[in-house]
Specification:
The protein contains nine helices and 13 strands. With 308 residues, the chain is an alpha/beta fold. The chain starts with 24 loop residues before the first helix and ends with a strand.
């Protein structure tokens, strides 16, 4: 039987509604203040009128991989944050970008909502994801998902043809796409996820946060993650002001190399507590897995990262 988290009279939660950890009274107070302050989603409507606020960049990368199979295109989006600080027009543009990638695989990196999962948000999530033409769709959950009714979000994703991966993998020929539980608030088991890949020649990993890098670097060909928002507020040139976590601070956005592994950290799409971004523009990722015969002097092939 589902238990209801204890509440005080004001409606502040003492613990998360879902299975996510790292949620306490301070977080509960902050969220209750924001629910009241951001009533009727006025920050999103206001932010949508700022020039350039609803533009979404495309991070375009390729990784050389072994094997005789076909090339594969993966489109990746993270941190949608459906809620009071994310304009609908911004989400429209992001999903237009994803659809234009014509991906073989759509990978979603979690944090689908901000504050609360509701039936309306679940329907919107399913509708948007359903419109992306990809034969395979996978998703992981983020900390904001695990702090609310994540089961509602999981069901919505499944209705849109998405397989939600919690330390598990799916196979596409000799390619495995694995997804790990949220490194921050979940119970990530990278070994279990890697074991689910079996004898795959190529492995693409999806995680909510770059804190998964230490567990997966060198063991997968590509790692796609988000969570950082590129700092959300950054200095001119994109240097983040504040990013949580040691790994996130070092790799707040962009393309990074760890031996065999190319890690791409997306700035994500939506907004959270602060209803604006500065020098941390939203983005989605197109990753192309390109079959090549390796040069013996360059065992791990080549990678390129472009922003358009």
């Amino acid at each position: 039987m589902t238990t209801v988290p204890p509440r005080v009279a004001s409606g502040v939660r003492f613990r998360s509604r879902g299975r996510g950890g790292s949620y306490g009274p301070i977080r509960g107070v902050v969220e209750e203040i924001l629910r009241r302050a951001y009533v009727r989603d006025w920050p999103a409507r206001l932010w949508a009128h700022v020039p350039g606020a609803c533009e979404v960049r495309l991070v375009d990368s390729h990784v050389d991989v072994p094997g005789a199979g076909p090339d594969l295109t993966v489109a990746f989006a993270s941190d949608l944050h459906l809620g009071p600080t994310t304009p609908s027009r911004l989400l429209d543009r992001a999903f237009e970008r994803l659809a234009a990638c014509a991906p073989d695989v759509l990978a979603l990196g979690g944090d689908y909502v901000f504050l609360d999962a509701t039936e309306a948000k679940a329907r919107e999530l399913a509708a948007r994801v359903r419109e992306v033409p990809a034969q395979t769709k996978v998703a992981v959950l983020g900390n904001h998902d695990l702090w609310t009714d994540h089961r509602l979000l999981e069901r919505a994703l499944e209705r849109a043809g998405v397989q939600v991966l919690v330390d598990d993998a799916v196979r596409i020929g000799d390619v495995a796409v694995l997804g790990v539980d949220d490194p921050w608030t979940g119970a990530m088991d990278a070994e279990r996820a890697l074991s689910a890949c079996g004898d795959a020649t190529v492995i693409v990993a999806v995680a909510h946060a770059p804190e998964a890098i230490p567990a997966l670097a060198g063991q997968v060909d590509a790692l796609l993650c988000g969570h950082t928002h590129g700092g959300h507020l950054a200095l001119p040139g994109g240097r983040p002001v504040v990013v949580q976590g040691a790994v996130g601070k070092r790799h707040a956005h962009g393309v990074h190399r760890f031996g065999r592994t190319t890690a791409i950290v997306s700035r994500g799409i939506g907004g959270i507590e602060i209803p604006m971004r500065a020098f941390a523009p939203p983005d989605v990722v197109r990753l192309r897995l390109v079959r090549r015969e390796y040069d013996p002097e360059n065992l791990f092939g080549h990678t390129r990262g472009l922003i358009r």
